[in-house]
UniProtKB/TrEMBL annotation:
Entry keyword annotation includes ATP-binding: no
Record-linked Gene3D superfamilies: GntR ligand-binding domain-like, Winged helix-like DNA-binding domain superfamily/Winged helix DNA-binding domain
CDD domains on file: WHTH_GntR
PROSITE patterns in the record: HTH_GNTR (PS50949)
Entry protein name: GntR family transcriptional regulator
Domain HTH gntR-type per the UniProt entry, residue ranges: 2-69
UniProt keyword terms in alphabetical order: DNA-binding, Transcription, Transcription regulation
């Protein structure tokens, strides 16, 4: 069975975001194929996709390497999200389906429950699912794709502090969903803009130490990471 390149792409991207590969480090097809238990063909295709997304660059005499974004490029990502997230919420107010609303309300209920319990790890995942669903509710695949890529890159470049008041944070999510449910695009846009701006205050650029880089390098050199095959047909 030939493993799809998009599955390999997801695995490599996840490891880049997690910091397994140091910025500027080489990504050889042979090493990647061995790590993920695949042939070099899907690896080659995955690297092309990741280069288009900005996670990988091709350098003369070095080949594929992890990109090294500047602080300005990182700041631009937050600004882009501040523009696009409110647009997505406004569109969602006009285009959402009942299924989108059901999922969004379910996530808000679960997020509020976890916030009261102080489950910070769960809240981070739930927040990601909430914003992903809100983007999908916009009815624009292009916008959804752009916001997904922005979230991946922001997670790569920034460490994020949890909200100081998780209960109030999830109440903001609830207010956004209420506006979307009423079809009030302007209010959904305004609430999402305020929410995103406040969330940006908790973002800190990542600066790894030499020891951290050594640990990550050893992890890459000495481990295998088979591609998740869930849902693939034989």
């Amino acid at each position: 069975m030939r493993i799809p390149a998009h599955s390999v792409c997801t695995a490599i991207r996840d490891d880049i975001v997690a910091g397994v590969y140091e910025r500027g480090s080489r990504l050889t097809e042979e090493l990647l194929a061995r790590r993920y238990g695949v042939s070099r063909v899907p690896v080659r295709e995955a690297l092309r996709t990741l280069e288009a997304e900005g996670f990988v660059v091709t350098r003369r005499h070095a080949g594929a390497c992890v990109a090294e974004p500047t602080e300005q490029e990182a700041a631009d990502l937050l600004e882009m999200r501040r523009l696009l997230e409110p647009l997505g919420a406004s569109r969602a107010a006009q285009r959402r389906t009942d299924a989108h609303l059901k999922v969004l309300r379910g996530l808000v209920r679960l997020g509020q429950e976890r916030a009261r319990q102080g489950s910070s790890d769960d809240l981070r995942s739930l927040g990601g699912w909430f914003h992903e669903t809100l983007a999908q509710a916009s009815g624009s695949p292009a916008l959804t794709s752009m916001l997904t890529q922005l979230r991946h890159k922001i997670a790569w470049m920034y460490a994020v502090d949890g909200p100081s008041d998780p209960v109030a944070y999830w109440a903001e999510h609830g207010a956004i969903v209420d506006a979307v449910a009423r079809g009030d695009g302007e209010r959904a846009r305004t609430l999402t803009a305020l929410h995103t701006e406040q969330a940006d205050a908790g973002h800190r650029l990542r600066f790894g130490s030499g020891a951290d880089r050594a640990v990550r390098t050893d992890r890459v050199r000495n481990s295998q990471h088979p591609v998740n095959m869930t849902g693939l047909r034989h």
